[in-house]
Amino acid sequence: MRYFNYLSEEEEQLLFYEPPVSFDNTSDKELLSIAVGAALYTPATRLTIADDIVSGKHEGLTSLVLDLEDAVGDHQVELAEECLIQQLHRLSAWIRLGTLLTHSLPLLFIRVRSPEQMSKILTMLQEDAALLTGFVFPKFTVDNAHHYLQLLMDYNRYKAPSAAVLYGMPILETAAVIYRESRLETLLTIKKLLEPFKAYILNIRIGATDFSSLFGIRRSSDMTIYDLGVIRDCIMDIINVFGRIEDGYVISGPVWEYFKSDRSLKQSVQQNLFEDAMGRKGRRVKVQVVNRQTDGLLREIALDKENGLIGKTIIHPTHITLVQALLVVSHEEYMDATSIIANNNGYLGVMKSQYANKMNEMKPHLNWAQRIMNRSKVYGVFHENQNFNSLLVRIGQEQAYVQN
């Protein structure tokens, strides 16, 4: 699996100064934690999950969460479990037959309802659990944390030596986390509970929809989650507790729940960037690309990045490339990061950037530089004259071709 593997060799060379690296569920944890990226949720009741993966139905898909929780009705749970097991068995059979290569699988996760369901699913899957990258733990609390984490540790302790490590991704989304009077104690207790199991924690995820529900609010498509003050404050505290560089946790951005809009991205995607890339027909491509996205999503991804979050929960495949494109490292970021790391030898404290528009300080900016380098491995680095719009243009060209 590799980001932007749908690009031709010529397109990749045109766009990328450093191309993304390949990965699968056996890759190093540090790389995998960043590679989760745009995690597409799909109900486990879908009967075409295996077929869609094999056919490459969703271009650019690298992370897929099979949802047994909120996406499944309470009266469909057993059906969803049976369907999920059947779909994973089919994938396993195709791998044994050589129809499907293991390294071409997206990272697969299962969002369960409870530790008891997780145990049941592992028993039903048996050796096919090796197809998974991990489990998502919804409504992760002080009360259920140990049960989830112990199951995870026990699996990894007794799994076959050739099987990949299974990881956990807890979702912080309960009242105890967002209510001010209990927030700090809850976050610190959860962090303490995670500590012995840190090697198996791939992401810390934020359940902004459940948080919003507790206050009867919902962001509109014009707004970001950071525009909802009570949610923003909680996210900032989650980052403060789990985002510290010495702890090594990766925090993922909350779900964007809108997947269609008639509004264009008036400010976030500038028309001249499309026209620079494609000439006059860029105007038409811009309309085709951005009319189905929202200004709020682009702004929210940008704010996620600025606050140190990497990746995002998504509920529609049209968001895949948009989220991924915004995670590619810019040439300027990469030059700054490499310069800071290369000159962190005690001889210089500060120096002008290669772009001659900022000062790079060796010690204060070192942690940032290392995070940029880690992200660059997974998502690649754009050439100096390229940016995320270049990938959006590529999508627009495909759509224009199909429609014509």
Name the features.
404 residues; alpha/beta; TIM Barrel; 2 domains; eight-stranded parallel beta barrel; two-stranded antiparallel ribbon; 17 helices; 12 strands; 12% strand; globular; disordered C terminus
Layout of helices and strands:
Layout: H1 9-15, E1 16-18, H2 29-35, E2 38-43, H3 49-55, E3 63-67, H4 77-97, E4 107-111, H5 115-125, E5 134-137, H6 145-158, E6 167-172, H7 175-178, H8 180-194, E7 204-206, H9 208-213, H10 229-242, E8 251-256, H11 271-278, H12 282-290, H13 295-306, E9 312-314, H14 320-327, H15 331-342, E10 350-352, E11 359-361, H16 366-379, E12 381-382, H17 388-403
Parallel strand pairs: 2-3, 2-9, 3-4, 4-5, 5-6, 6-7, 7-8, 8-9
Antiparallel strand pairs: 1-12, 10-11
Helix pairs in contact: 2-16, 8-10, 11-12, 12-17, 13-14, 14-17, 15-16
3D structure, described in words:
The protein has 17 helices and 12 strands. It has 404 residues and is an alpha/beta fold. The radius of gyration is 21 Å and the shape is globular. The chain has 2 domains: 22-258 and 294-327, TIM Barrel (Alpha-Beta Barrel), CATH 3.20.20; 332-379, no CATH class. Helix content is 46%, strand content 12%. The two termini are 31 Å apart. An 8-stranded parallel beta barrel has the order 2-3-4-5-6-7-8-9, surrounded by 4 helices. A two-stranded antiparallel ribbon has the order 1-12. Mean pLDDT is 89; it is low at 261-277, 281-289 and 399-404. Helix 4 links the parallel strand 3 and strand 4 (107-111). One of its GO terms (molecular function) is lyase activity. InterPro entries: C-C_Bond_Lyase-like, Pyrv/PenolPyrv_kinase-like_dom, Pyrv_kinase-like_dom_sf. It comes from Paenibacillus baimaensis. It holds the Pfam family C-C_Bond_Lyase. Its cofactor is Mg(2+).
